[in-house]
Amino acid sequence: MTDYFEVHGRDGAARLAELRLTDPVTTPALVDSVVEDAGSLWAAEQEVPEGSDDVLTVLPHRSFPAGTDERVQESFSVDSPELDAPTASVVTSETAAETGADAYILSNAQGFVGHAAAFREAIIEAKDRLPADTALYLSGVATPRNVSTLVYAGVDLFDAKLARVRGREGMYLTTESEYFLEDLEELPCTCAACQTPRSEFTRADCAEHNVNALRAELATVRRRVRDGRLRDYIEGQARHDQWLTAAFREFDQQYGYLEERTPLVRNSELAAASSDTIRRVEIQRFADRVTSRYRNRFDNPLVLVPCSATKPYSESQSHGQFHDAVQFRAHLASMTSPIGVVPSELELTYPAQHYDSVVTGRWSEDEKGFVASVLQRYLERNDYPRVVAHVPEHGYRDICERVEKEVDVPFEYTVEDHPTTTDSIANLMSTLQGELKYSKRERQHNTIAALADYQFGDGAGDQLFADVDVEMTSRYPKLQVWNGEGEQLATMVPQYGVLSFTLEGARVWSESDAPTKRVEIDNFAPHGSVLAPGVVDADDDIRTGDEVVVEGPKAFAVGRAEMFGSEMAESTRGVAVEVRHVEEK
Amino acid sequence: MSQPSPEVYERGKGMDAHNEVMREIRSRKDRTYDPHEPTRVWMDEDNTPDGVKQSLTIILNTGGCRWARAGGCTMCGYVAESVEGGSVAHEALMDQIQVCLDHEAEQLDDGETAELIKIYTSGSFLDEREVGAETRAAIGETFSDRERIVVESLPDFVEREKLEDFTSQGLETDVAIGLETATDRVRHDCVNKYFDFSDFEDACAEAGAVGAGVKAYLLMKPPFLSESEAVEDMKSSIRRCADVDHCHTVSMNPTNVQRYTMVDELYFNGGYRPPWLWSVADVLESTADVDAIVVSDPVGHGSDRGAHNCGECDDLVQKAIKDFDLRQDPTVFSQVSCECEGTWDVVIEEETSYSMPLAR
């Protein structure tokens, strides 16, 4: 329960939030100047403070440093008083429990910051034990170099204690390293402290610089979270310290924690620039859904083509040529690193039209292995009479040959030299000679069904749209779904490649066998948005950006989730669902 | 008599947990010791109410501390230096004394002896389950030609009859009491030592009744306290001890990280740093005005497991502390300085128990 912390935006586990003091603080941020410590109960009895809206009051605490046995923690645990003011409770990741505070400080942070596996374990355990809508505060550990990864893992509040101490120790901290001040011939920074000439630059100046650098890095991180691009940054930034790289990889291996917190769609670019991109949630989720939810509905052969730099692929010059050669006689799917396989119906779906990768033509074994496994699973799930691999040598061809051995359907190769050479295109055309064309209606219908599969679950396309007489209006990529009675059910949103329902569509969804994501609300009719306190319950599998049905005694509505399911159920502040259509009961 | 209260109940729970954990930690070691050898013996110089004296310090192996067997203090690993099975027989203890006398004879010129004898047991010399009446009297006799004797004991065992074994030999007699801190809350919850400051006051009165004195041993920076909390605890403890009649000396010692202790577990996991030598200097300097001798002997100074500064100035500051021990002159501290004092300042100002240690 918190009145003084509100999450406004999420990017994976990272959050952009507001510490609602008299002068609000946008977090992640340093909070040194707004924290008031009511004192340690180890040292003395402490009076319960009154608290104030101007500061975050750290309630009287018995802090357990890293290495404190859990039995000692339990026997010395303190009851936190509930104040009508912003408060923080001191806990450890091992024994944290809700106290009613707005923020929680992990007093064992010194033990796990710097150790990737222990860090991952501590953060996940603490998040699991503490309410989703409260702030997590790590004191005395932040540096310009590590703070972005700490935010990425889900930490909200920091202080400059360590940066100051390190400065006084003669350590000059930057986002990419830490230097012995005495070794620096020139200062690699232009902050206010570093305006001091090198010869007069003291350790006190160094401490000031460290704090400036930390503050600037947090501003960068906040920008990245706002843009939904923190992960892109982390893949580069974390490279500057081994434990940080290990840390975000540890989180990649803890898929569930990040997956729950990663939005279904984003409007921003996804940079596929490192070998770690393959393991990020957005990529894994797409591959997983393509191979476990999506189903091919065309009877035609499959033509595998290489991806293009232009997105969506169909707008690229190369795909234009492939398209002209294929002439609707085959189903097109693009092979790409790091996404895997993108069937043409899903070419707009996040992150298929949003990623931008580094193209050198050299494929790593990791990339080949990943794309091959996706292609194999894809072909095991979907039956095609023929597979035409219109792909170049190197990488693509290797992958196809690898998969060909593992599946029943034979591969035919049509590329000489390069896929867009006249010979290659001619080969592709002639290979498909005699194959029948599918209609525009079939193509559009299959696109809608594919999106429904991808978004709502295996079989959802048929469960939602088979029984109704679906008509399409408007042109791709902005398809509209209508039933036979002149009522619109859904629209395809071209920016993210997902469906959004009308009220009537939501009703179809709700009554269908397709798994419905539901948010149960209190006795009111929401207009605009549903706030978290109004949520009675929400399905655990709701992700930020998901289409949800909102229902309560007074209303039936449809909208888009602004937080994930368990967060909606637990939170006491913030927007849970942006409602698109509502009907009062 | 104290009334039961939630506070007492909480304390009991905390003590149970501390003891359970400490027993477990201690059980990991399996060394045993020869009951005919003292744990340690060394020669030194000590500041006493009668001036600086040549001293013979004996750590007698008596089977160790009874409290430690129940679990015991969170920082104390000396129970490791105990014998298997518990108690040590009279003959064996006298053998240990002989080893110490031989050591003394080796170190000093012919005919010379130390004026001051200090006997510690890692427990209580005055506890008759550790050292029987017969042995105590024999030891009193053995050292009857010296000027002063110091014996270690918990306050519970300080009884005038026992002290008379020494005072009757004409020895100036002091009881060394491991008070650790004058703050009951810290002693109970951080150190896990069971007695109260009032027990210490009673022991001082008991000693004073037969003309003996008390030397209080304080512990700087038990686990769970930040650097500044530890410093404040010591400053007030020294003043409170000095105000107690018959407590004429305070030995204020920084925690060092001993194996098989709770402090060691915290240290190993990144949750503990021994105090700064600057903290020791600060406390000594600021309490130099009290009416008692205040000394400190930072064990393992300059090492990661002992009180330390930055590594550059440790020996210098240690030297100032030792100098202060002998002369009680606070100006010695204004003669040492180092850039790391600035780091220590920030640590004192910014370290809290939920952000410690801020520096290694």
TrEMBL record, chain A:
One Pfam entry for this protein is TGT
Q: NCBIfam families from the xrefs?
A: tRNA_mod_ArcS, unchar_dom_2
Q: What's the family?
A: Belongs to the archaeosine synthase type 1 family.
Which InterPro entries does this UniProt record tie to the protein?
Archaeosine_synthase_1, ArchSynthase1/Queuine_TRR, DUF5591, PUA, PUA-like_sf, PUA_sf, TGT-like_sf, TGT_C2
| Pathway where it operates | tRNA modification; archaeosine-tRNA biosynthesis
Q: What is this protein called?
A: Archaeosine synthase
Q: Print the keywords alphabetically.
A: tRNA processing
| Gene3D superfamilies, alphabetized | ArcTGT, C2 domain, PUA domain, Queuine tRNA-ribosyltransferase-like, Uracil-DNA glycosylase-like
Q: Does the keyword tRNA processing apply?
A: yes
Keyword tRNA processing applies: yes
Which biological process terms from the Gene Ontology are attached to this UniProt entry?
A: tRNA wobble guanine modification
GO CC aspect terms: cytoplasm
Molecular function, one GO term: RNA binding
Residues passing through the membrane, by range: none
In this chain the PUA domain maps to 517-584
From TrEMBL, chain B:
Cofactors needed by this protein, per the record, are: [4Fe-4S] cluster
All copies of the Elp3/MiaA/NifB-like radical SAM core domain together span 55-286
This protein's source sits in the domain of life called Archaea
Q: Where is the composition biased (Basic and acidic residues)?
A: 8-20
Q: Which InterPro entries match?
A: ELP3 (IPR039661), Elp3/MiaA/NifB-like_rSAM (IPR006638), RaSEA (IPR005909)
Provide a GO biological process annotation. Answer: tRNA wobble base 5-methoxycarbonylmethyl-2-thiouridinylation
Q: Where is this region: Disordered?
A: 1-20
- The reply to whether 4Fe-4S figures as a keyword in the UniProt entry is yes
GO MF annotations for this entry? 4 iron, 4 sulfur cluster binding; catalytic activity; metal ion binding
Q: Which UniProt keywords apply?
A: 4Fe-4S, Iron, Iron-sulfur, Metal-binding, S-adenosyl-L-methionine
Q: Which SMART domains match?
A: Elp3
Signal sequence, start to end? none
GO CC terms: cytoplasm
Matching PANTHER family, A to Z? ELONGATOR COMPLEX PROTEIN 3 (PTHR11135:SF0), HISTONE ACETYLTRANSFERASE-RELATED (PTHR11135)
Name of the protein in its database record: Elp3/MiaA/NifB-like radical SAM core domain-containing protein
